[in-house]
Amino acid sequence: MISEPGENIEYHKLIEQIGNSYQSARGRVVTAVNTEMLNAYWEIGKHIIDFEQEGKLKATYGKSLLVNLSKDLTLRYGRGFSRSNLQYMRLLYQYYPICQTLSGKLSWSHYVELVSIDDDLARAFYEQQAITDDWTIRELKRQVKTGLFHRLAIGKDKEKVLELAKKGQVAHSEEDFIKNPHVFEFMNFPENYEYNETDIEKGIINNLQKFLLELGKGFAFVDRQQRLTLNNRHYFVDLVFYHIKLKCYVLIDIKIGKVEYEHIGQMKLYLGYFTKEINEEADNEPIGLILSEGKDDVMVEYAMLNDHSKLVVSKYQLYLPDIEQLKDKVKEIIEK
């Protein structure tokens, strides 16, 4: 018997409904299992610390408590009780003494990375940002490695640094795109390589997912080398994105060396063109982001004085920053 077209439509709707219910339930099961495992690891950490603090360490254990525990628990229960794992469970309880503060949205692997961070403010930031932006463990590791918290904190006052640690980073304006610096280590350029702007642009396109992670949540790629034509003269914007939350275009120009005054003027031209020619009624004013290897802060300040353009000049580097140096700068901010 051949079913009618209408019946096929209804049947496919049924398949879709069943699939949605199944996927939703499976997601809840994964979250529930994840939460239960986190709770169990937290309790194990608590047992270990309670044992230590109550003076129950015998001479046969001493500093070898975790080693002995690992051997005995592995014999009894199998894998999962390595010395390092037990140490992470201990740290989990130490850094999160209230079990309810653990997030079911993060896995044990996320928390292993988090408890490896000594800085309380940085740990709080990375936890909140991982939850907000739904970072995979790989993304979390990359952001910790590149010192995202400390890069965002540079240039803020103490109050804003503390707020950053507590709430994470959410883009509300063009100023929230500033990092000190942006890090493009994923391009893997040799240190003596004489790269040009095209090389960097190609590196970004070839590693677009990692570049979007560096920019932050909410960006959608639109175009590369987008042509703008005025009076029969062509101009080209290196990269064009759209920020879904801010509802605006983000225009990016990449410069080798220091940013110059004419680069700022050129970006203002791009912003004006997009405002008049590209923007739809629902779009907000576009944002311009000039990424350069260096910048003269005084020149940029004067070039932008009394200017209401949404334009940001930020530095980038192609190699990992000196994290300890960044930590020292943030420490100075906090101590002031």
Protein model, in words:
The structure is a single chain. The chain is globular, with a radius of gyration of 26 Å. The chain has a six-stranded mixed beta sheet. It is α/β, with parallel strands linked by helices and 336 residues long. It has helices spanning 5-53, 65-77, 83-95, 108-114, 120-133, 137-145, 148-153, 158-167, 197-206, 208-215, 261-278, 297-303, 323-335; strands at 182-183, 219-230, 233-243, 248-258, 287-294, 311-317. The mean pLDDT is 89. It starts with a helix and ends with a helix. Strand 5, helix 12 and strand 6 form a beta-alpha-beta unit. Helices cover 53% and strands 15% of the residues.
Structural class: alpha/beta
Beta-strand percentage? 15-25%
pLDDT averaged residue by residue: 89
Distance between the termini: 81 Å
Structural features:
Trna Endonuclease, Chain: A, domain 1, 53% helix, six-stranded mixed sheet, 336 residues, alpha/beta
SSE blueprint and pairings:
Layout: H1 5-53, H2 65-77, H3 83-95, H4 108-114, H5 120-133, H6 137-145, H7 148-153, H8 158-167, E1 182-183, H9 197-206, H10 208-215, E2 219-230, E3 233-243, E4 248-258, H11 261-278, E5 287-294, H12 297-303, E6 311-317, H13 323-335
Parallel strand pairs: 1-6, 4-5, 5-6
Antiparallel strand pairs: 2-3, 3-4
Helix pairs in contact: 1-3, 2-3, 5-8
Give a quick precis of the structure:
With 336 residues, the chain is α/β, with parallel strands linked by helices. Helix content is 53%, strand content 15%. The protein has 13 helices and 6 strands.
